[in-house]
Write a structure and sequence with these properties.
This protein is α/β, with parallel strands linked by helices and 311 residues long. It has a single domain, classed as NADP-dependent oxidoreductase domain (TIM Barrel). 38% of the residues lie in helices and 15% in strands. Strands 3-4-5-6-7-8-9-10 form an eight-stranded parallel beta barrel, surrounded by five helices. It has a two-stranded antiparallel sheet with strand order 1-2. Strand 5, helix 4 and strand 6 form a beta-alpha-beta unit. The longest helix is centred in the last third of the chain and has 16 residues. The relative contact order is 0.13. Bound molecules: NADPH dihydro-nicotinamide-adenine-dinucleotide phosphate (NDP).
Length: 311
């Protein structure tokens, strides 16, 4: 039986940001379930990280249909946590999921068709044992499907009560502009944009996306804020066997260059002068950028998450 900490909202005044021009407040640090929560991860560890997050005011959990190994298993893990731990707290949680990347075989299991999006949201709800998600994203722009088809399917998902808000992730600026206008005219304004932003990858700033979102009253949530672990002390002394880099899939060892190590050592010195770790320094840099609502961290242990929330 899980009883959340009664102190979870002690920092209510300082730990939440308004998401664009909406009624939604999001925690400055949100938790992502891309890695570390699939069927290949120890369930009790997933539970401990999720409970720790909620106990510390992290109310926003982020998924996609294909998170976890095998695909879908991060949502399934969360479905079990929902049933066993979090059901009484559903209304304190802000749950997002996405569709866009490869999820199931054949020609209807990825991209942006109405056929795919409608099936995907139903699958996600079943796996997570939810009646609705708070936020449904298009995970990537589909250059071959009419953009109106994708957007109208998303609007209809809201109208059907399967999602409360809509988000867009990884779309280039021009189609994003179109989406913002389209959704406005359907009375389902875009809530948030999810893009990769960290000290090593600044595309959303360079491409004007962050600025555009701010002007349009759309929130912005930064994913891979620690560059998948590069912007921490994880790889300072080698490649730990249990690390993401050791898997050589999404994060490969060629990223661990002498230049990066120099950069990290300098950063470590600078961070230490402010009494912070490298991870805290990297997260704080993102939160200082105008227009950022939340930073979406990953963690493979409670201690990593504890490090990341010491703002
Ligand atoms: P991060 O950049 O936060 O990387 C997380 C990894 O960094 C952890 O798994 C861990 O690696 C390491 N780490 C985290 N904290 C620490 C710490 N304090 N000290 C040392 N190492 C640490 O984010 P992710 O790349 O995991 O992405 C976060 C979330 O963003 C995802 O879960 C997902 O929700 C979202 N996302 C969205 C995408 C999109 O296309 N919209 C794409 C990618 C992510 P290790 O596992 O080796 O311990």
């Amino acid at each position: 039986m899980y009883t959340p900490s009664e102190h979870r909202y002690d920092n209510k005044q300082s730990f939440y940001n308004r998401c664009g021009k909406s009624g939604v407040l999001l925690p400055k640090i949100s938790l992502g379930f891309w890695h570390n929560f699939g069927a290949d991860a120890p369930f009790e560890r997933s539970r401990a990280i999720t409970r720790f997050a909620f106990d510390h005011g992290i109310t926003h959990f982020d998924f996609a249909n294909n998170y976890g190994t095998p695909y879908g298993s991060a949502e399934t893990t969360f479905g079990q946590l929902m049933a066993e731990d979090f059901a009484p707290y559903r209304d304190e949680l802000f749950i997002s999921t996405k569709a866009g990347y490869d999820m199931w075989p054949g020609v209807y299991g990825e991209w942006g068709s109405r056929k795919y999006l409608m099936a995907s949201i139903d699958q996600s709800l079943k796996r997570m044992r939810l009646d609705y998600v708070d936020l449904f994203y298009s995970h990537r722009f589909d250059p071959l499907t009419p953009v109106e088809e994708t957007l109208q399917a998303m609007v209809d998902i809201v109208r059907m009560g399967k999602a409360l808000y809509l988000g867009i992730s990884n779309w280039p600026l021009e189609p994003l502009r179109f989406a913002v206008d389209y959704l406005k005219t359907r009375d389902v304004p875009l809530l948030i944009y999810q893009g990769r932003l960290n000290m090593l990858n600044r595309e959303p700033i360079e491409q004007g996306i962050l600025d555009f979102c701010q002007r349009e009253g759309v929130g912005f949530i930064a994913y891979s804020p620690l560059a998948q672990g590069l912007l921490t002390d994880r790889y300072l002394n080698g490649i730990p066997a249990d690390s993401r880099m050791a898997q050589q899939h999404f994060l490969t060892s060629d990223k661990r260059t002498p230049e990066l190590l120099d950069y990290l050592h300098n950063m470590q010195t600078e961070a230490a002068q402010q009494g912070r770790t490298i991870a805290q320094h990297a997260i704080d840099w993102i939160l200082q950028q105008q227009g950022v609502t939340s930073v979406l961290v990953g963690a493979s242990s409670v201690s990593q998450l504890a490090d990341n929330i010491q703002l």
